[in-house]
Automatic annotation (TrEMBL):
Keyword field: Oxidoreductase, Pyridoxal phosphate
Gene: gcvP
Requisite cofactors: pyridoxal 5'-phosphate
Residue ranges annotated for the Glycine dehydrogenase C-terminal domain, each copy included: 757-875
HAMAP family on file: GcvP
Purpose of the protein: The glycine cleavage system catalyzes the degradation of glycine. The P protein binds the alpha-amino group of glycine through its pyridoxal phosphate cofactor; CO(2) is released and the remaining methylamine moiety is then transferred to the lipoamide cofactor of the H protein.
Superkingdom of the source species: Bacteria
Catalytic reaction equation(s): N(6)-[(R)-lipoyl]-L-lysyl-[glycine-cleavage complex H protein] + glycine + H(+) = N(6)-[(R)-S(8)-aminomethyldihydrolipoyl]-L-lysyl-[glycine-cleavage complex H protein] + CO2
EC number: 1.4.4.2
BP terms from Gene Ontology: glycine decarboxylation via glycine cleavage system
GO CC terms in record: cytosol; glycine cleavage complex
Official protein name in the record: Glycine dehydrogenase (decarboxylating)
Lineage: Bacteria, Bacillati, Actinomycetota, Actinomycetes, Micromonosporales
Length: 933
């Protein structure tokens, strides 16, 4: 059987039955009717023909073999680490964790929410600050978000942000990228050499510095506060098990990465960044925040705090665009802390510090000078004129060091460093070995951390295994059933696609390893970028952005840089339709643009007359239009080609948000939209794609993602990878470690399989729309009444007539064994269903029948009154087995509604969660032990 037939759920016979229901003779006929001819691509995809799973793995093995796994002592925020095998197999390689969705439906997400609460507790304890969020994309972007947080919170009117010259170079670059469009001036200052500038709103310190130096920052923090500035400390969490934490010297914010807590380097990512703030700033924190609340019985329950969706993405008033984060990796890092506990982490850190001290002792004894006396894991050796020679000699011994300059070499120890590695380094420097010495770190930490029992209960492998299983069992992921989330494309994440991710040749490479050691990655990335360019009709692609939101920012920055490069300095307006995803407007704001909203017409399409008016109004200020295609309403709009032409005629650029590419692959190319039409209308100029939607990277419970940016030739010089406006992610290839997943998907599907997947995705959405239309109005449709790859069910008339809300339906679906569709996006009071091509007909029918049965329950609400199975959903096992049952409907209706297999019943661990209670009583770390009494 071909891989495509494994990936695509419905068999040929099932597809025929679905086509019959929708009223088309073939997939081709359906797609001919659905997709406007003006954008239709008829020439196929120029991609290699499908490989079998075995062939693809063999090719990946050959690519992996072209990478060299050396001993990495480069440091700079990326360190060797031992991923505990129990965590690797039971989290990173376990679909119960990696196929879960973002925990917007908290009742079915208690396991990952608990793990994320552990993560937040770990970060706040180690940094000595109060409130941590549930992960950032990487250290560089976390530091950039800290800068904008400082700008919002500071009382200083200065626009100057001061950055420690000993900060990580990639962090400085990401900060500069983010600062420039916002009018912030970044001043990189050698803080050893002189005082702070008088005027500043924020200060970024690195602790320990990139050089390894551990400095006492207390006086600088005081001076910055006196100037009205906020202080961010980018701190190494492992170092903080031994060193005085930033919270104890009054830092306002800490940012960094949790990579070395058991997450492989992966040639740069994915890893969980962190961001944590002192008391008083928690309501300004970007990203997702897990908090404690209570359910309908008053039991403790977790959910995302301060928001249903990201509260900082307030469209044109946005302060951040972060959406998809790094949940899977945050879970891994938190479990590393749970497994080792405070004493174990301290022991690991001490071993690392002892290695570094021993290394330094040997260098000193051999007459090599060191840049600093106080350090944790990293030393900078001073070898005037000899640095290249030393780095080369170490490489010849299988060890990568950091070339700081012609005169200095950086060497970082980590938990994988052995005495043999130290000997190789000494030998590269030409100094004799010395006996091990014990480290005495500067600024030793006196306070405790990780005192919550969860960090002291799961140290045996048996206990850890069971804890991971217990949490995973609380959650509903794709391994249990369909997750029909509109706009999120929760399709199969095939095991063959996942396997290479943990191969050492992909997992254990440092992002700044020498080019000769990463030939396999270089080839894989350039093939993947080429294939994505072919699929989208663009000329160049960069995989650096590590989420869709970051791809948006990169694309808009490219547009901005393009206009500026032509001396077109007044173009700063981005037109965005009212139906757009919140990240679009947020990214435009971050790219220094003003957002002007374009209306949608009654059919949900971009209102072209309103577009004309807006274009006329903004005149020469038009920078771009940003549209999603097919629209977030799930419709192939016929006006897209003329929309492109109107904006181009007015001097603007066209950004097509490619999150919905699952409805286009093989049938239309955004970069070529309308090109073939009479009159030669032009296509879009730039898109981002979401490899964690269309191209099978699993959602991970809310990340990782990859959001490549694809552009036409005129924008190519402005891509981040082309040295354009600067880095948008810390690592040159972003989350490179998961790129084998989309590579394998494309390689195994081939051009025909990919095109068929699109067709079946559209067929499945139309099948669901056809079956449900008589029960729930389908809000929008395009050509011939067809939807694209998703459909919006309009609950508003039902809510008006019966009081039953989208929330009630979503929670009742849990009792039926389903994850809810997307709620109230893009239209409040509706559900958006995206079945994808991977669900077979039986699962599609099970979903439709559940929705139909729920409609019948809604019709009976009148007879039950307020105490009905919808209002009380979801029902827990505890509730339905309670000795007393007072509800007017039977227990069997609560627990086993029609179609539920009693042997495969999913039981939610908590009843409906009261979000508002938790927001009023914000608790974002593990509650103290007495709270468990
Ligand atoms: C998912 C999505 C995004 C944002 O992508 P992230 O990876 O979550 O940042 C943007 N636009 C649309 C239409 C989306 O569906």
């Amino acid at each position: 059987m071909s891989f495509a037939a494994r990936h695509i759920g419905p068999s040929a016979a099932e597809q025929r039955r679905m086509l019959e229901a929708v009223g088309y003779a073939s997939l081709d006929a359906l797609m001919d009717a659905a997709i406007p001819e003006v954008i239709r691509w008829h020439d196929g995809l120029d991609l290699p023909p499908a490989a079998t799973e075995e062939e693809a793995l063999a090719e990946l093995r050959a690519l992996a073999a072209r990478n060299t796994v050396a001993v990495s002592m480069i440091g700079l925020g990326y360190h060797g680490t031992h991923t505990p095998a129990v965590i690797r197999r039971n989290v990173l390689e376990n679909p119960a964790w990696y196929t879960a969705y973002t925990p917007y439906q908290p009742e079915i997400s208690q396991g990952r929410l608990e793990a994320l609460l552990n993560f937040q507790t770990m970060v706040s304890d180690l940094t000595g600050l109060t409130t941590a969020n549930a992960s950032m994309l990487d250290e560089g972007t976390a530091a950039a978000e800290a800068m904008t947080l400082a700008r919002r919170a500071s009382r200083s009117r200065s626009q100057v942000y001061v950055v420690d010259a000993d900060a990580l170079p990639q962090t400085i670059s990401v900060i500069r990228t983010r600062a420039e469009p916002l009018g912030i001036t970044v001043r990189v200052v050698d803080l050893d050499a002189g005082p702070l500038p008088d005027e500043l709103f924020g200060l970024h310190l690195q602790y320990p510095g990139a050089s390894g130096a551990v400095r006492d920052h207390a006086a600088l923090v005081g001076a910055a506060h006196e100037a009205g500035a906020l202080v961010t400390v980018a701190a190494d969490l492992l170092a903080l098990t031994l060193l005085r934490p930033p919270g104890e010297i009054g830092a306002d914010i800490a940012a960094g990465t949790t990579q070395r807590f058991g997450v492989p380097m992966g040639f740069g990512g994915p890893h969980a960044g962190y961001l944590v703030v002192r008391a008083g700033l928690e309501r300004m924190l970007p990203g997702r925040l897990v908090g404690v609340s209570r359910d309908a019985d008053g039991a403790r329950a977790y959910r995302l705090a301060l928001q249903t969706r990201e509260q900082h993405i307030r469209r044109e008033k946005a302060t951040s665009n972060i959406c998809t984060a790094q949940v899977l990796l945050a879970v891994m890092a938190s479990m590393y802390a749970v497994y080792h506990g405070p004493a174990g982490l301290r022991a690991i850190a001490s071993r690392v510090a002892d290695r570094a001290a021993t290394l330094a002792a040997g260098l000193r004894a051999g007459g090599v000078g060191l840049a600093a006396d106080g350090f944790f894991d990293t030393v900078t050796a001073l070898v005037p004129g000899r640095a290249r020679e030393v780095v080369g000699a170490a490489a010849a011994r299988g060890v990568n060091l950091r070339l700081v300059s012609d005169d200095a070499v950086g060497i970082s120890c980590d938990e994988t460093t052995t005495p043999a590695h130290l000997e190789a380094v000494w030998s590269a420097f030409g100094v004799p070995p010395v006996d091990p010495v014990a480290a005495t770190v500067p600024l030793p930490r006196e306070s405790g951390y990780l005192t919550h029992p969860v960090f002291d209960s799961h140290h045996s492998e048996t206990a850890m295994l069971r804890y991971l299983r217990r949490l995973a069992d609380k959650d509903y992921a794709l391994d249990r059933g369909m997750i029909p989330l509109g706009s999120c494309t929760m399709k199969l994440n095939a095991t063959t696609e996942m396997e290479p991710v943990t191969w050492p040749e992909f997992a254990d490479l440092h992002p700044f390893a020498p080019a000769a050691q990463v030939a396999g990655y270089t080839a894989l990335i350039s093939q993947l970028e080429g294939w994505l360019a072919e699929i989208t009709g663009y000329d160049a692609v960069s995989v650096q952005p590590n989420a869709g939101s970051q791809g948006e920012l990169a694309g808009l920055l490219a547009i901005r840089a393009y206009h500026l490069s032509r001396g077109d300095t007044g173009r700063d307006v981005c037109l965005i339709p009212s139906s757009a995803h919140g990240t679009n407007a947020a990214s435009a704001v971050m790219a220094g643009m003003r957002v002007v909203v374009v209306a949608c017409d009654a059919d949900g399409n971009v209102d072209l007359a309103d577009l004309d008016r807006r274009i006329a109004d903004v005149g020469d200020a038009l920078a771009a239009v940003m549209v999603t295609y097919p629209s977030t309403h799930g419709v192939y709009e016929t006006g897209i080609a003329s929309l492109c032409a109107k904006v181009h005629d007015a001097g603007g650029q066209v950004y097509v948000d490619g999150a919905n590419l699952n409805a286009l692959v093989g049938y239309a190319k955004p970069g070529r939209f309308g090109e073939l039409a009479a009159g030669g209308l032009s296509g879009a100029d730039v898109s981002h794609l979401n490899l964690h939607k269309t191209f099978c990277i699993p959602h991970g419970g809310g990340g990782p993602g990859v959001g490549p940016v694809a552009v036409r030739a005129h924008l190519a010089p402005f891509l981040p990878s082309a040295g354009g406006p600067g880095l948008v992610s810390a690592a040159p290839h972003g989350s490179a470690g998961i790129l084998p997943i989309p590579w394998a998907y494309l390689r195994m599907m081939g051009p025909d399989g990919l095109t068929r997947a699109t067709g079946v995705a559209v067929l499945a959405a139309n099948y669901v729309a056809t079956r449900l239309r008589e029960h729930y109005p389908v809000l929008y449709a395009g050509n011939k009444g067809l939807v694209a790859h998703e459909c919006i069910l309009d609950l508003r008339p039902i809510t008006k007539a019966t009081g039953v809300t989208v929330d009630d339906v979503a929670k009742r679906l849990i009792d039926y064994g389903f994850h809810a569709p997307t709620m109230s996006f893009p239209v409040a009071g509706t559900l958006m269903v995206e079945p994808t091509e991977s669900e077979d007909l039986a699962e599609l029918d099970r979903f439709c029948e559940a929705m139909i049965a729920i409609r019948a329950e809604i019709a009976s609400v009148g007879s039950w009154g307020g105490d009905n199975p919808l209002a009380n959903a979801p029902h827990t096992a505890g509730m339905v087995t309670a000795d007393e049952w007072t509800h007017p409907y039977p227990r069997s209706v609560a627990a086993y509604p029609p179609g539920v297999d009693r042997e495969a019943k999913y039981w939610p661990p908590v009843r409906r969660i009261d979000g508002a209670f938790g927001d009023r009583n914000l608790v974002c770390a593990c509650p103290p032990v007495d709270a468990y009494a």
